[in-house]
Specification:
The protein is an all-beta fold and 115 residues long. The chain has no helices and 10 strands. The structure holds FE2/S2 (inorganic) cluster (FES). FE2/S2 (inorganic) cluster binds at residues 47, 49-50, 52, 66, 68-69, 71, 84-85.
Length: 115
Protein backbone atom coordinates (compact mmCIF):
# COMPACT_ATOMS: atom_id res chain seq x y z
CA UNK A 1 0.00 0.00 0.00
CA UNK A 2 3.03 2.24 -0.04
CA UNK A 3 2.76 4.81 -2.77
CA UNK A 4 6.01 5.24 -4.61
CA UNK A 5 6.00 8.83 -5.71
CA UNK A 6 9.61 9.85 -5.74
CA UNK A 7 10.09 12.53 -8.34
CA UNK A 8 13.49 12.84 -9.98
CA UNK A 9 14.69 15.77 -12.08
CA UNK A 10 14.70 14.76 -15.75
CA UNK A 11 15.63 17.97 -17.55
CA UNK A 12 15.06 21.72 -17.64
CA UNK A 13 11.75 22.95 -18.97
CA UNK A 14 13.70 25.36 -21.14
CA UNK A 15 15.49 22.39 -22.77
CA UNK A 16 12.21 21.21 -24.30
CA UNK A 17 11.34 22.40 -27.78
CA UNK A 18 7.73 23.42 -28.46
CA UNK A 19 5.83 20.42 -29.84
CA UNK A 20 9.00 18.41 -29.48
CA UNK A 21 10.79 15.72 -27.54
CA UNK A 22 14.13 15.00 -25.93
CA UNK A 23 15.47 11.69 -24.69
CA UNK A 24 16.97 11.65 -21.21
CA UNK A 25 18.30 9.11 -18.75
CA UNK A 26 16.42 9.10 -15.44
CA UNK A 27 18.08 6.87 -12.86
CA UNK A 28 19.20 4.49 -15.62
CA UNK A 29 15.83 4.42 -17.41
CA UNK A 30 15.54 5.96 -20.88
CA UNK A 31 12.67 8.46 -20.79
CA UNK A 32 11.21 10.57 -23.59
CA UNK A 33 10.14 13.99 -22.28
CA UNK A 34 7.61 15.56 -24.63
CA UNK A 35 6.11 19.03 -24.78
CA UNK A 36 2.82 19.12 -26.65
CA UNK A 37 0.04 21.70 -26.66
CA UNK A 38 1.47 23.43 -23.58
CA UNK A 39 1.74 20.26 -21.49
CA UNK A 40 4.69 18.04 -20.63
CA UNK A 41 4.53 14.25 -20.79
CA UNK A 42 6.98 11.45 -19.99
CA UNK A 43 7.02 7.96 -21.39
CA UNK A 44 9.49 5.13 -21.68
CA UNK A 45 11.85 5.97 -24.51
CA UNK A 46 11.50 2.52 -26.07
CA UNK A 47 8.92 1.57 -28.67
CA UNK A 48 6.74 -1.39 -27.64
CA UNK A 49 7.16 -2.93 -31.12
CA UNK A 50 10.93 -3.09 -31.35
CA UNK A 51 13.66 -1.63 -29.19
CA UNK A 52 14.15 1.76 -30.75
CA UNK A 53 14.05 5.22 -29.17
CA UNK A 54 10.73 7.04 -29.48
CA UNK A 55 12.50 10.33 -28.84
CA UNK A 56 13.84 10.12 -32.41
CA UNK A 57 10.29 10.45 -33.72
CA UNK A 58 7.85 13.26 -34.48
CA UNK A 59 5.34 14.80 -32.07
CA UNK A 60 1.89 15.86 -33.22
CA UNK A 61 -1.74 15.77 -32.04
CA UNK A 62 -0.90 14.51 -28.53
CA UNK A 63 0.99 11.56 -30.00
CA UNK A 64 4.57 10.60 -30.70
CA UNK A 65 5.30 8.69 -33.85
CA UNK A 66 7.84 5.89 -33.91
CA UNK A 67 10.32 6.69 -36.66
CA UNK A 68 10.92 3.07 -37.61
CA UNK A 69 7.47 1.72 -38.60
CA UNK A 70 5.18 4.67 -37.94
CA UNK A 71 3.07 3.57 -34.97
CA UNK A 72 1.86 6.59 -32.96
CA UNK A 73 1.46 6.49 -29.19
CA UNK A 74 -0.94 8.65 -27.21
CA UNK A 75 1.15 10.81 -24.87
CA UNK A 76 -1.49 10.68 -22.13
CA UNK A 77 -1.97 6.90 -22.00
CA UNK A 78 0.93 5.36 -23.93
CA UNK A 79 -1.58 3.45 -26.05
CA UNK A 80 -0.69 2.86 -29.69
CA UNK A 81 -3.13 4.53 -32.09
CA UNK A 82 -2.12 2.38 -35.03
CA UNK A 83 -0.23 -0.73 -36.10
CA UNK A 84 2.25 -2.35 -36.09
CA UNK A 85 2.62 -1.72 -32.32
CA UNK A 86 -0.16 -3.31 -30.25
CA UNK A 87 1.06 -2.84 -26.69
CA UNK A 88 1.17 0.45 -24.76
CA UNK A 89 4.38 2.19 -23.78
CA UNK A 90 4.64 2.93 -20.03
CA UNK A 91 3.97 6.56 -19.12
CA UNK A 92 5.20 8.38 -16.04
CA UNK A 93 3.72 11.21 -13.94
CA UNK A 94 5.35 14.61 -14.48
CA UNK A 95 5.63 17.63 -12.19
CA UNK A 96 6.97 21.03 -13.12
CA UNK A 97 8.81 23.00 -10.44
CA UNK A 98 10.17 26.28 -11.69
CA UNK A 99 12.35 25.35 -14.67
CA UNK A 100 12.71 21.72 -13.56
CA UNK A 101 10.83 18.84 -15.14
CA UNK A 102 10.43 16.10 -12.54
CA UNK A 103 9.39 12.54 -13.36
CA UNK A 104 8.20 9.76 -11.08
CA UNK A 105 9.28 6.31 -12.20
CA UNK A 106 7.50 4.72 -9.25
CA UNK A 107 4.48 3.88 -11.36
CA UNK A 108 4.21 2.70 -14.92
CA UNK A 109 7.27 0.50 -14.76
CA UNK A 110 7.86 -2.04 -12.05
CA UNK A 111 10.46 -4.20 -13.70
CA UNK A 112 10.15 -6.66 -16.51
CA UNK A 113 9.42 -9.82 -14.58
CA UNK A 114 5.91 -10.10 -16.02
CA UNK A 115 7.01 -10.23 -19.66
S1 LIG B 1 9.77 -0.19 -33.89
FE1 LIG B 1 8.27 1.30 -33.40
S2 LIG B 1 6.62 0.81 -34.71
FE2 LIG B 1 8.09 -0.72 -35.18
Amino acid sequence: MTELSTYVRACALSDLPDEGVIGVDVSGTPVAIVRAEGEVFALLDVCSHEEVALSEGEVYDHTIECWLHGSCFDLRTGDPTGLPATRPVPTFPVKIEGDDVLVSLGTGMSGREDQ
